[in-house]
Amino acid sequence: MSRSIELEDGRVVTRSDGDTYQEMLDRETNPVPAPLRESTDTFLGSDNLSVDRYLSREFHELEVEKMWNRTWQAVCRETEIGNPGDYFVHDITTYSIVVTRTESGALKGYHNACLHRGRQLRKDCGNAREFKCPYHGFRWSLEGDFKGAPCEWDFPHINKSEFSLPQVQVDTWGGWVFMNMDLEAESLQSYMGILPQHFTRWKPENTFKALHVEKVIECNWKVAWEAFIESFHTVQTHPQIMPYLGDSNSQYDCWGDNVSRTISPMGVVSPHLENVEPGQTVNDWLQHANLLAGGEKMEVPEGMTAREWLADYYFSAFSEQYKTDLASFCTHSEIMDSILYSLFPNFAPWAGFHPNLTYRMKPYGDNHEMCTMEIIVLMRYPEGEDRPVDCPVQRLDKDQLFSEAEGLEGGLGRVFDQDFSNLKMVQRGLKNLKSGEVVLGNYQEIRIRHFHQTLDKYVYA
Ligand SMILES: [Fe+2]
Predict the structure, then answer these.
(1) Distance from Cα 226 to the centre of ligand 1, integer Å
(2) Each residue's pLDDT tens digit, 126-155
(3) How far away, in angstroms, is 423 Cα from ligand 1 center?
(4) Other Cβ atoms closer than 10 A to 279
(5) Is the whole-model pTM more than 0.85?
(6) CA–centroid distance for 380 within its chain
(7) 230 alpha carbon – ligand 1 mean position (Å)
(8) What are phi and psi of 310, to 5 degrees?
(9) Least buried of 227, 335, 422, 425, by fewest C-beta within 10 Å?
(10) Distance 220 CA to ligand 1 centre (A)
């Protein structure tokens, strides 16, 4: 079932039956922040996409040569390299970059290779007073300046003042460290478009990393990425969440080349279902979130919607946790909806005042038929109190389930496992797609089309 909607610019568009997300916002009791009131209703055509993008080695190599070395990518949290000498290695396809905090507290990034015979200088993360190559002992300061080597008499041809580690661009946003290998690239601020302005209210810099799971998946990285920038698949892949997720009422937005967003309303029943009582919505949701003791059931008073009940429940739970009165300023949307932004190419932060999921997908080394997916949960803590320490990464191999990770045992892990069950099968199916092309929906899959149009600007430049 669908409805026609006339937009302010005169266009008539087709959308799912039921309330639009904007109509749900009309019922908010607290003022709605401006970023949530934006609705771009982007249309980018209906062309199919070639399967070569996911399958061919040539396309992967174009991404390596023309995209991964020219885009801004999240490296780690600022708190993970908080002290002078802390370093973090960002590996992406064939590239390796080491980002470090210098003595002055500044962040710098270098191509991770010794300028003598090329050995990789560092792996993973740690703390170092200088970058000393483990092969022959050539040394560079944290500022990247050459400090010396054994038997320097044999290298009279080295100009020490020019023998510095080649740098990359490094900047920060929202508590994240970003890098871009392209020294000519636009600034991170400009690259992010509307995103920093939208997030000023949610302040992801005031969080700590409460969960970090990285899993290997047997599919091209874009197959995994695309599974998390649309909610359309809920009806078939995650039927158990439909009593409390307005899947096809989701709003999809695109801004510029690099930013897009899905907002999926929670605490409302999917338009695909009929006759779901508010009590079922509330209890199914609380069970998913592991918030109900066995057999426990909540009552929803007559005349109250499930969305209102759940908002009140979360306002009181999170207000206590953050020692802030959320009910006085926070919208129902910001306390429970899935508000998922993405920054090209592979970084997807949730917004709002609930614990914020963040996703990142990367090719698995230089392998274009495998990838890693990271699930990170950023949590708030009471203002003025010490920031809790970031958690370590839990790594899962290709045969493990997300729900095997500590912290993903409940309904959330089950949802990720349902997504995971599709991904390898998509990669295999693409090889047997006789048309050689995938087909996309005009609205619900607009972010996938938007993503590929930006990717084209790099690989076919
Ligand atoms: Fe999913």
Answers:
(1) 10
(2) 999 999 999 999 999 999 999 999 999 999
(3) 10
(4) 14
(5) yes
(6) 17
(7) 8
(8) -65, -35
(9) 425
(10) 17
